[in-house]
Design goal:
Protein name: LysM peptidoglycan-binding domain-containing protein
Shape: extended
Distance between the termini: 31 Å
Number of helices: 4
Radius of gyration: 24 Å
Domain LysM: 167-217
Organism: Paenibacillus chibensis
CATH topology of the largest domain: Elongation Factor Tu (Ef-tu), domain 3
Number of strands: 13
Number of domains: 2
Strand order of the largest sheet: 2-1-7-8-9-6-3
Structural class: alpha+beta
Order of helices and strands: EEEEEEHEEEEEEHHHE
InterPro entries: Bact_Kbp, LysM, LysM_dom_sf
Largest sheet: 7 strands, antiparallel
Strand content: 35-45%
Helix content: 10-25%
Pfam families: LysM (PF01476)
């Protein structure tokens, strides 16, 4: 069994140590109204967003007795913690999967908390909370007068295509591929990735950038 988060690019992040337990919170929504001297009345609404929460840790050293995968797959605890921060900042949903179970749902990382323990240097403990995602879209409903009007409803079947849109960059005077790679990807040596993705636009000479060209970033 593996606990996995998959982003819109199809990149998988597998939690190295399975949690001992997972809590899935489900609640029914209610609208409470007070009617004169009769008191309060509850009117049932739609289901609230489900919350999935669990706790585990990122170990500094690999231990086959509880770690998933191989020693080469074990992420650095600090890097893994930063990855959760990156996931929490996303505006597009992730897919959360628990293999060998029916859990395979689109989610947002709602919160996570990291803990460092003095007796276990290098390990990072965490608690994480996920909220399931449902798409909002407009549908037309007929009014009493026969005309149609738009109404926002929840699509109970989440859209499966959650791929992130490709990010683009418009070349400015004085730009080079290494400069763009440093600014946009954080590493100037990744200029070749940009070139390979935009070879048809740039041409055979990677140094022949022209202001106004739109490049697709990997």
């Amino acid at each position: 069994m593996e606990f996995v988060l998959v982003n819109g690019k199809g990149e998988r992040f597998t939690f190295p140590v399975n949690p001992e337990e997972v809590t899935i919170s489900r609640q029914k929504g209610y609208d409470t109204t007070t009617i004169l001297s009769y008191g309060e009345f509850d009117f049932a609404q739609g289901d609230k967003v489900k919350e999935i929460s669990f706790a585990s840790f990122f170990p500094k050293a690999f231990d086959a007795s509880y770690c998933q995968g191989s020693e080469q797959d074990l992420p650095d605890p600090q890097t893994a913690m930063n990855k959760l921060n990156e996931f929490m900042a996303l505006t597009t949903p992730l897919r959360f999967i628990i293999t060998e179970t029916a859990v395979n749902v689109p989610v947002f990382v709602a919160s996570h908390q990291s803990t460092f323990r003095g007796g276990e240097p290098g390990d990072v403990y965490f608690d994480i909370s996920l909220r399931t995602w449902r798409e909002m879209k407009a549908s037309k409903v007929a009014s009493s007068s026969g005309s149609s009007q738009a109404s926002s409803v929840v699509n109970k079947t989440p859209r499966l295509d959650m791929k992130e849109k490709s990010k683009t960059y418009t070349v400015k005077p004085g730009d080079s591929l290494s400069k763009i790679a440093k600014l946009e990807l954080g590493n100037s040596s990744d200029w070749q990735k940009i070139y390979q993705s935009n070879k048809q636009v740039i041409g055979s000479n990677p140094n022949a950038l022209k202001p106004g060209q739109k490049l697709v970033l990997p």
